[in-house]
Amino acid sequence: MPVIATTALTKRYPRVTALDELTVEVGSGVTGLVGANGAGKSTLLKILLGLIAPTAGSAIVLGHDVVTGGEAVRALVGYMPEHDCLPPDVSATEFVVHLGQMSGLPATAARERAADVLRHVGLDEARYRPMGGYSTGMKQRVKLAQALTHDPKLVLLDEPTNGLDPAGRDEMLALVRRIGTEFGIPVLITSHLLGELEHVCDHIVVLDGGRLLRSESKAALTGETGVLAVEVRDLGGRDRLGAALDRAGARARPDGPLVLVEITGEETYDVVRDTVAELGLGLVRIEQHRHRLEEVFSV
Amino acid sequence: MSDQLRPPAAGVIHDIGYRHYDGPRLGRFAITQALTVSSLRHAYGLGRSGKSKVMPILLLAVMVVPVAIMVGIENALQFDNPPLSQMRYIFFLQAVIALYLASQAPQLFSRDLRYGSIVLYLARPLRRTDYALAKLTALALALMVLMGLPMVILYAGALLAKFDFTLMTKEFLSGLVTALLLSILLAAIGGLIAAATPRRGFAVAAIIAVLIVSFTAVTVVTAILDPEGTHRDVASRYANLGSPFSLVEVLASFVLRGGGDWVPNTTQGLVFAAVYLLVVAGCCWGVNARYAKVARG
Q1: What is the ipTM for the molecules in this complex?
Q2: Among A201, A206, A215, A241, which one has the highest count of C-beta atoms within 10 angstroms of its own C-beta?
Q3: Each residue of B219-276: pLDDT tens digit?
């Protein structure tokens, strides 16, 4: 059973349609929700939490309808909002314990869980200090910890890498990956940067203007294409190779230092090998070309 | 290698991995209760930074110290009668109560809006009505503590001084009823104003303005309508509806059949009661509507 399933989900505001007949399923593991600003990502998360009602269509989260069972959904889901949400005058420990109780944990259990999750997100000595003095990276960690403190069955992370430096970004993404795999909690993570989701997600959902652009496993999205990338020693060699391949009947085009050759069958490999040998070029590498998500998105 | 010979350090933390929680999960009622308790603690700065304890504790001291001194004096000098009733004491120190409301209502209401933490509450099982109700209850209880503590001291002092037990108990209970009526009304008004703005300063100023301006207006209007202070003039009586403090003073006199400067007749009393209920209900509705808007945004 999918963790999240929406059917023709639509949200219209007086002047704008935020979601337009969105039908999508999200399973276990880490799912990336990608789209430009205003693509409807945050609206979708709010509907999934039962905070706003859809105009039409339905959404089932963990077996509960979000309109009639919002409360049950919120008890089982952890949510990390995009924007700042931490009061500066309490400590991380105090705050996460409190929010654990707000999710229905008894006081002692809330304390234990808070200590556990703060350790998992890597917030050590600082957790007893008021949060006003925290760096952005530490604040993001607390925000993630509060989403995990009640051991949810699904976490929704709204742009968790926002405002982080490259090192912090990598750590946060590694943490997200761990939640999806080691912790065994399904994750829905939004981002407007495709590159960063490439490494952590099993599945990618691409939204554009409130509509579903694509929903595929990452393997399918970035899967092998029928293109062979060949790199030879110098740029002159690249042009000569390109021309020679054309003459041999293969479809080739230059791309930066590479020559991209369309694979038409087993013989393409032989043609490339023979042509390079005939021209006496220094072969640097020859590999099957993989799409990157940027290319998928630009299509 | 010497490393291999060294005994394992005493305080090694073993990474036991992620542990799932399969204990009990409490329902809405228990969560609301937990939020009320923590909000009440926050209203006195408990569990928050040292700086945020200063104002509430200072104001509590201002409420308590005079009665403590008074109790000391009435016991030392063996007064025959208590110098001040509980009910009078509240209205005597209403400026302190107003200040407390102005300083703490924004802590309970504006704070979550200003720092965005309201989102984290709304994403949890609690309904927004539960959240609003828990905050309003906590504020009313905090005001109850502020007014109740000096009353308890006055009562204990009166018993120590061996004043008439029945009379003292009656006064004490009347005081508590008045304090409860006032706490609920002030919490509703202060809560609505504080929930309306994420800016703490605005909320503080607005609450002070509403309480002080309304009370001054009532005092001036009654003085004009009833220059001799006989409390007979009907219009001047109804003028007391204009401020929370005078409204509660009259309502308490009506409910308790005495204690204030004058006792309203039944019609007047019912009007005061109706206005009281309307204001409380309206403010609670307003707070709730405000959070409904926040949840959508």
Answers
A1: 0.84
A2: A201
A3: 999 989 888 878 888 888 999 999 999 999 999 999 998 777 788 889 999 999 999 9
Low-confidence ranges of chain B (pLDDT < 50): 1-5
Roughly what angle, to the nearest 10 degrees, separates helices A107-120 and A136-148? 130
Number of domains chain B is built from: 1
The parent domain of residue A269 ranges over 223-297
- Domain extent for B197: 28-296
Of the candidates B18, B24, B126, the beta carbon closest to that of A182 is on B18
Instruction: Give B26 to chain A, closest Cα distance, Å.
Output: 4
The total of structural domains in chain A comes to 2
Picking from A181, A206, A221, the residue at the C-terminal end of a domain is A221
Q: Tell me how far apart the terminal alpha carbons of chain A are, to the nearest angstrom.
A: 31
CA-closest candidate to residue A285, choices A252, A218, A238, A244: A238
Taking the C-alpha atoms of residue B94 and residue B63, their distance in angstroms, rounded to an integer, is 10
Q: Is A116 left (phi over 0), alpha (psi -120 to 50) or beta?
A: alpha
Question: In A66-173, at which residue ranges do the beta strands (DSSP E only) sit?
Answer: 77-80, 154-158
- CB within 8 A of B40, min separation 6: which ones? B138, B141, B142, B145
Asked if the model's pLDDT at residue A254 lies above 80, the reply is: yes
The Cα of A203 is separated from the nearest Cα of chain B by a number of Å equal to 23
Chain A residues in contact with B200 (beta carbon < 8 A) = none
Q: CB-based contact (8 Å) between A177 and chain B?
A: no
- Cβ within 8 Å, pair A89-B51: yes
Tokens of B90: 């509240």
Using an 8 Å CB-CB cutoff, list chain B residues near A120.
Answer: 18
pTM of the entire structure?
0.82
Give the Cα separation of B238 and B91 in Å (integer): 18
Distance, in Å, from the CA atom of B110 to the CA atom of B187, rounded to the nearest integer, reads 14
Q: Which residues contact B213 (CB under 8 A, 6 or more apart)?
A: none
Residue B223 DSSP SS3: helix
Q: What is the pLDDT of residues B150-161, one digit of tens each?
A: 999 999 999 998
CA gap B222, B228 in Å, rounded: 10
- For residue A73 the two structure tokens come to 């959904």
A208, A74: one domain = yes
Residue B40 burial by Cβ neighbours in a 10 Å radius (0-12, 13-18, 19+): buried
Please, which residues bridge with residue A230 across strands?
A259, A286
Cross-chain Cβ contact B19/A116 below 8 Å = yes
A134 and B CB contact within 8 Å:
no
Structure tokens at A174: 């590694």
**Number of CB pairs < 8 Å for A and B?**
97
User: What are the tokens at A253?
Assistant: 């085009």
Examine residue B22 and state whether it is found in any structural domain, yes or no: no
Cα A90 from Cα B48, distance rounded (Å): 5
